[in-house]
UniProtKB/TrEMBL annotation:
Span of domain VOC: 2-112
Protein source organism: Brevibacillus brevis
Lineage: Bacteria, Bacillati, Bacillota, Bacilli, Bacillales
Protein name: VOC family protein
Residues of the signal peptide: none
PROSITE patterns: VOC (PS51819)
Length: 112
């Protein structure tokens, strides 16, 4: 059995959806105006985004996108910096990793 569905409450569904499409190759399968979106990936993940007036998650809450190599982590980090996101350099922790606050109010970890 594997976890394959996650719902996030976000403050901006469209911005969050575009971010996830651009950097993590998720594809939008369905939207309902600006209040709901269904995204998926080639491995069967279904990620839904629901509009909320605020998105408050515990400080350590995040979702992660595991990459195949450090070079991929570095490339995503570089693209995010070029696009104006406030991201630090990847660091060696439990893997080669960095975190970014995504549009909509949730945190994403990129690692390998």
């Amino acid at each position: 059995m594997k976890l394959n569905h996650l719902n996030l409450t976000v403050t901006d569904v469209n911005a969050a959806r575009e971010f996830l499409e651009k950097y993590f190759e998720l594809q939008t399968r369905h939207t309902r105006g600006n209040s709901f979106a269904v995204l998926s990936d080639k491995d069967g993940l279904v990620l839904t985004l629901m509009k909320g007036t605020e998105a408050e998650y515990p400080k350590t809450f995040h979702i992660g996108f595991i990459q195949e190599s450090e070079e991929q982590v570095n490339a995503i980090n570089r693209r995010m910096k070029e696009d104006g996101f406030d991201v630090g350099e990847p660091q060696r922790a439990h893997g080669w990793t960095f975190y970014v606050k995504a549009p909509g109010g949730f945190t994403v970890e990129v690692l390998c």
